[in-house]
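Task 17 of the worksheet. Students: predict the tertiary structure of the chain below and write it out as structure tokens. Keep your answer in the requested format; marks are given for formatting as well as content.
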Amino acid sequence: MRTLVISPNWIGDAVMAQPLLRLLKQAHPERAIDVLAPPQVVPVWRRIQEADDILVTPFRHRALQLGERFRYARLLRGRGYSDAYVLPNTLKYALIPWLARIPRRVGYKGEMRYGMVNVMHHDDRPPRSMVPFYAALAHEPELPLQGKPTRPCLVVGGEESEAVGQRLGIDLGRPLVVFAPGAEFGIAKRWPPAHYGALAREVVRTVPGAQLALMGSPNDRETCEQVQGFAGDAAASVINLAGQTSLDDAIALLAQATAVVSNDSGLLHIASALNRPVVALYGSTDPNYAPPLSDMARTVSLRLACSPCRQRECPLGHHDCMNKMTVERVWSELAPILARQVA
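Model answer:
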């Protein structure tokens, strides 16, 4: 008997689903858990101890591919699943366990998935944060979640971090401060590069021997170059790794970070799940919905009347929720963390 978990498509959401797997494993320790995940989140699931086998989805993004899903469901049918947990809210992902004839199919109503999901949970009003939202699927829909779910946890070996650091020219014996100035969702989540550059100057001025790594996808390369430009005299200590690392590399480096400053992004939630000290910057999104949960975590949000708007771009055109978040405000949260970490 096995359990199938169908992963969310976003990196941060995949991280925040880990406590669900812990609850499933506690309930049935004898039952293997397979995770069906899109390629971009597979490195996250490889660091989750409760995931026994990772299956990579062969489907194109936003494509129904009904024939391909039917053929893949036939392959899954022979693996002996007793239940499936469908974490994405789309109809097309609920099709897979239904076509695979998995008897118990658990998930939220999402896109009117009656029948395909036969143990149906309903969204909260107001919504819960993501960790208890996913963790609630471990219980029957009518039962409240007992207690507070544990925080997400990823595991990385020290030898992996050391190898990645050597390859990228990062000395893990020196303080490593990571900035993640991008956000795949859209520009509304991003603190301005000029602010990150000014914060970099404060870090280099205050922490002797500090290395400052800028991390992100290839789409964040230009933003990180701007941060370097605004860093001024501190630019020599700033390394732009955006687009230069795989997600595996990024996870390995984040595991050794002295501190991480990040917009609301997948890298923020990875750092939190690695229990690194983080300062999380929220503008268009709600810090209560997806907060960092590491032991040393600080959130900065101006909580303007127009936020959180949850839009990819500022609908009012001024982006005040991020532009008016001062460097001094963020530094007031980061400085005590650095003082404690490098003491």
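Marker's comment: The mean pLDDT is 93. DSSP finds 13 helices and twelve strands in the chain.
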